[in-house]
């Protein structure tokens, strides 16, 4: 079954990353993503202590703003903690902050030795405060949370820079003058601390390339419908004069592309997550690229650090996020048709899922196998 084999692929790579991290392997050539996982952490979870009866509690934010949470992070975290002998309780708040609080309370009642929280609309802070009052270490996973013990994510400013770069390159390739180009910004939900980082990174690269800034900026959302409606408004306000779009992730990009398609326009559009819709739009030439953030890197780092925190060790990092929380960032990369095979090789995309009938010719042209 497709779903099963998909999870197996992800687990295999995540497990490989854990082996590297636990120091059981002398080589780091298991997969490109696990290679850099090994390089980025202090990479020794061998003092993992006795995990008997230990519980890791994880809160995910939603299932629609990106496919990553359910299809990437969940199986990678599940496998990583189980590998370390932990029981795992992963809940998804389905974009409902009330549910977020209730589900986290239920986890705390059952008992947690460590909590990994992906913030949703600020709901993470209260949960972190409660958990810490009970002496439970808290990791802010992917999105920053004030007061957490540790923040594990990608370098999110860099994510934005790569997004800016991919549309600057695409504009240049299309002969569009960046200095006079009409660029629309379709950012992420401003309550997500990452959204500003993505924005500022992209904005810095666009401005360095000569852009005076956005011709129109939407309010920002992690939501296909809201992003589509907002972009439609931008398009109308600019009377269709749009030369490029900075879109903060693949879901937002997909919504923008639907509007562009309707108007018969193909222009540079950025993305993030290497999600199925993003990969397909890149293959079809409708999206310039997508920022690839193999979730195995984040999950492996989070599991490693969670175990350290449970054992009373202090995370080793000299970086801090904007609120002063110790920060361990992973490095993102750009994926275009030229190097997309790596996503498949890492087990983070399935040919059967991406290369459907409508995309088949593009997959063949890109040499995807
Ligand atoms: C994550 C992205 C994701 C977005 C929407 C951000 O915080 O870093 O990977 O696309 O949230 O879920």
Short description:
With 369 residues, the protein is α/β, with parallel strands linked by helices.
Ordered list of secondary-structure elements with their pairings:
Elements: H1 2-21, H2 32-40, E1 55-60, H3 68-83, E2 87-92, H4 97-110, E3 114-117, H5 123-133, E4 138-141, E5 150-154, H6 156-173, E6 183-186, H7 193-208, E7 216-217, H8 224-237, E8 244-247, H9 250-262, H10 276-283, E9 290-292, H11 295-310, E10 327-330, E11 333-335, H12 341-345, H13 351-354, H14 360-365
Parallel strand pairs: 1-2, 1-3, 3-4, 4-5, 5-10, 6-7, 6-8
Antiparallel strand pairs: 9-11
Helix pairs in contact: 1-2, 1-3, 1-11, 2-11, 3-11, 4-5, 6-7, 8-9, 9-10
Bound molecules: beta-D-glucopyranose.
Description of the molecule:
This protein has helices at residues 2-21, 32-40, 68-83, 97-110, 123-133, 156-173, 193-208, 224-237, 250-262, 276-283, 295-310, 341-345, 351-354, 360-365, and strands at residues 55-60, 87-92, 114-117, 138-141, 150-154, 183-186, 216-217, 244-247, 290-292, 327-330, 333-335. The strands form three sheets. Strands 2-1-3-4-5-10 form a six-stranded parallel β-sheet, sandwiched between helices. Strands 7-6-8 form a three-stranded parallel β-sheet. A two-stranded antiparallel sheet has the order 9-11. The radius of gyration is 20 Å and the shape is globular. It contains 14 helices and eleven strands. Residues 1-46 have low confidence and may be disordered. By secondary structure, the chain is an alpha/beta fold. Helix 3 links the parallel strand 1 and strand 2 (87-92). Helix 1 (2-21) packs parallel to helix 2. The protein is 46% helix and 12% strand. Bound molecules: beta-D-glucopyranose (BGC). Beta-D-glucopyranose binds next to loops.
